[in-house]
Amino acid sequence: MNPVFLLRLALDGVAAGLLLFAFSYYWQGNAAHEVAGLSMFMLLMVHGAFHRRWFAGLAKAPRARRGKFNIALTLLLLTGMLVLLATSLVISETVFAGLRWDDDFTARRLHAGGAYWLLLVVAIHLGLRWPLLMATASRLFGITQPNRARTAVLRSITLGIAVQGLISAQALNLRDKLLFQMSLDWWDFGASVAGFFGHCLAVAGLCIAVTHYAMRGLRHGQRMAA
Ligand code: HEM
Ligand code: HEM
Prior knowledge:
By secondary structure, the chain is mostly helical. It contains ten helices and no strands. The protein has one domain.
């Protein structure tokens, strides 16, 4: 398999890990949060550089519905990340403390709420590339033939993750976070660290699964219509 592609995927994995880590603000504290966040932004610049041709090709060739959704979502992702970066700079308490605004209340709300929206958007972004990621995993594990039992087990796990994702959204009080509401119910990291990351992963897994199966349904519908 192309080593550059594998390197790209490994860097994507690290970026996703840093994104996840940044949600645990009240676990490791401000400095670790800011360094992890900035490292993710740097990796995203590399990610953007790898995909520069994709952006260059945007103006060309009309696209199918799935292609248009992909473009819209990628542009939303880009805008969201730029907002997260901009708010990071003006609320920073450690790395860019000198840039901090006196009245940064709105920027803090935008930063925290926007971050939770981005968790969902990044998961949808991954859901759109799930066939590519699964094909890569199959190759790495040397899986060449389809297997009904394996598919059934994987689908059951996916269903389990999706159901857990709904429960986890409640456990994280995601609704309030997505509505940019102030709340004092921070996760108790003293009680469980793994629980917090597990809930975040389950919510991301739910979005990945819904996106992947919605896209499959769409493709199937188009084939039937044709
Ligand atoms: C991966 C990128 C980042 C994500 C996903 C992220 C996410 C978050 C979230 C969710 C919170 C709220 C914590 C909570 O209330 O549970 C937060 C707070 C904060 N973040 Fe980030 N952040 C990122 C990068 C950064 C960077 C690069 C900086 C500064 C250089 C920064 C500075 C802060 C500060 C100062 C707070 C405290 C805000 C407050 O007291 O309300 N963040 N961040
Ligand atoms: C932590 C955040 C992100 C993760 C984990 C992530 C992950 C991935 C993965 C796994 C792929 C497919 C493999 C590859 O080609 O590298 C991909 C493709 C892509 N990503 Fe991201 N990505 C993230 C953020 C972004 C952002 C902020 C943008 C900027 C707009 C972006 C733009 C793209 C583009 C344009 C593609 C290729 C799309 C295509 O071929 O249809 N990604 N991403």
